[in-house]
Fold this protein.
Amino acid sequence: MQSVNLISDARFSDDAPTTLHALKTDQLLVDGLYLKPGQRLGWHKVAEGDRAFLCVQGQGELVLETVAVGNELRIPLALGAVALAPRGVFHDLVAGASGMVCSAFSRFPVRIVEKG
């Protein structure tokens, strides 16, 4: 089995956030998410399961859409913080002024639905 270091193997892009599939089994997907300062992952949801985010570098926030469309719950993320985007809830990941690296944990397979 190969090891991935989410910090030293960082893959930032000026164009958009980057995703690195760090680990995938028949039941689990672990991604590295790389956001430069101010970048947003974009509104999406995971239809079949929860998605947990662990901040491993920098800071930002997980934004959840609440029951009333247009309302948001903002959860701060800093080094070591963990936050959950529940199944079927639209969410966005937003990097702070220093950028952010997060690890995202989901049940595999993952079907992402973008808001649009």
Observations:
- DSSP finds no helices and eight strands in the chain.
